[in-house]
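Escalation from tier 1.

The customer reports that the assembly of three entities below gives different structure tokens on two consecutive runs. Tier 1 could not reproduce it. I'm attaching the input and our single run for tier 2 to review.
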Amino acid sequence: MPELPEVETLRRKLDREVVGQAIARADLLTPSMFDGPCPVTDLVGATIEGTRRRAKYLIVDLSNGLSLIFHLGLAGQIVLEKPDAQRVVGGHPIPRYSAPLPHKQTHLVLTFGNDDVLFMTDIRKFGHIWLTPTPKVYDIIPDERRGPEIQSAAFTPEEFRRILRARPRAKLKPLLLDQSTVAGLGNIYVDESLWGARLHPLQTPGQLTDEEIDRLHRSIREVIDLAVEKGVAEIVNNRAVEGSHLPRVHGREGLPCPHCGSPIVRFRVVGRSTYVCEQCQGVRE
DNA sequence: AACTACTCCTGGAGGC
DNA sequence: TGCCTCCAGGAGTAGT
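Tier 1 run:
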């Protein structure tokens, strides 16, 4: 599932390819995946000036004063195909990045002046695409519903403590999945962060010392930095890929904890599969 | 404040 | 091989 690291690594790869390119053609194959307020035809003729990311949203700023926004949902994927058939890929790995395109799950196709073609696909259609005037990007992504960016200077231990202390009785897992706490975490990286901080998903901020909250803050930063710089978590069919450096607990039920060797346990929290090492993180309920 | 339930969607896995 | 059922979950909203 594309979380912050998946979207950010995709953005960086894409940025190198598309900035400065003009959109020669835009084909919306699945109208239900798109909301304006501007029509898709407004893309044609615009040049890409830059890319940004906020939380799990990928923002593409255009020369005509508009911005194209992608949210990849659970299974969104972007493939940029070059004329020599080389592909720059990111997002959900299914269908295989090598699949012929477009296919029936392809929803938007952008053809550039240099004959590169960008395909946005999503087998579950939980993702979405918007085209809006650049000053109105945050009407689509309301800032007051997003917490701080994890890799920004605003994400300090003090700020994180303040946010958590305001929600003393919320369980850590749903709290961290809430985008208004911290922007960009999803099910996988929440499990990884809690494991790294040796905290249990059902603990609450009210039960934590300042030192423990700082430990969680540090762990979130480390996990996200590691994923963005050294490679994102690899999961196929809900299992961690053998030998991958991430995830370390998510999708590893029954396998030894990398820290202590005890078997990783899976249970449900707010309907989400949750993985813990009970030796390192404790047992609740 | 904190929680649950519900909605969107469909490929893939497992049972028989 | 094939039919059926369940599971995966980001984010928004509504209801308790």
